[in-house]
Amino acid sequence: MIRRTLLRHAQAAKQTPFVQSSRSASIIHSPSRRTPSSLPPWISPRYYSAAPEAASTSTSEASTAHPAPSDSQAEEDPIKKELESKNREIIDLKDRYLRSVADFRNLQDRTKRDIQSARDFAIQKFASDLIESVDNLDRALATVPASKLAPQNSDPDTPSEDNTYNKDLANLYDGLKMTETILMGTLKKHGLERVDPSEGEGEMFNPNLHEATFQTKVEGKEDGKVFMTQQKGFLLNGRVLRAAKVGVVKNS
């Protein structure tokens, strides 16, 4: 009897942990959880963290705050790219247009200058050939002495030994002088002017307008002054057609 009783207790002790674990499992997995104070003493309480739930909550909130792009927004990207491309094309075309306008205006200005220059200097070759005739007329007037042009006594019709006045020569001289005056006035209307730097007190030597043939001392004049003109110069609309050949003062 004693042996049988011990065997029974031993078998009962072996079966007891299995029962307790099954009971604890049923308690843990049951929908209605008990508090740790109400659990039996042989069941230890288990605690679970709520972090995964918080992470899932934050993920859902982030997805709500930043929604994924819809199909309409995805379709707008090509339109935006095309708009930017058109804007760049417009800027390029505008730049080309402005450059073309500037080039055309520059061409207009150059054409106007060329036309005006052609008008101003169209008679340059003709004027170059004509100034030789003007020089010959000027030389003819310069060869007549002043004593032949004015009478010496009160009665110019009465001949005298001292009277060298020649009425016919004086009349010819006056005619040539008027011809020269009219000719130079006509040439001046077309831009051709004669330059005599020795007139008056004399001009300062200008290498752009004058050609110095010699230098000499002249009392009462400063250095660099033109005191004599061997050949008069000509200007055509401000451009030197022929430089005047002059003598220059050099006292030092």
List the helices and strands and how they pair.
Elements: H1 2-29, H2 51-65, H3 71-120, H4 124-142, H5 167-189, E1 192-195, E2 210-216, E3 226-231, E4 233-236, E5 239-242, E6 244-249
Parallel strand pairs: 2-6
Antiparallel strand pairs: 1-4, 3-6, 4-5
Helix pairs in contact: 4-5
Question: How would you sum up this structure, described in words?
Answer:
The chain has 252 residues and is of the alpha+beta class. Helices cover 54% and strands 12% of the residues. It has helices spanning 2-29, 51-65, 71-120, 124-142, 167-189; strands spanning 192-195, 210-216, 226-231, 233-236, 239-242, 244-249. A hairpin with a 2-residue loop joins strand 4 and strand 5. The longest helix is centred in the middle third of the chain and has 50 residues, at 71-120. It is rod-shaped.
- Mean model confidence by pLDDT: 78
Order of helices and strands: HHHHHEEEEEE
The helix/strand class is alpha+beta
Q: How would you describe the shape?
A: rod-shaped
Helical fraction equals: 40-55%
Summarize the structure.
It contains five helices and six strands; from the N terminus they run αααααββββββ. Mean pLDDT is 78; it is low at 17-34.
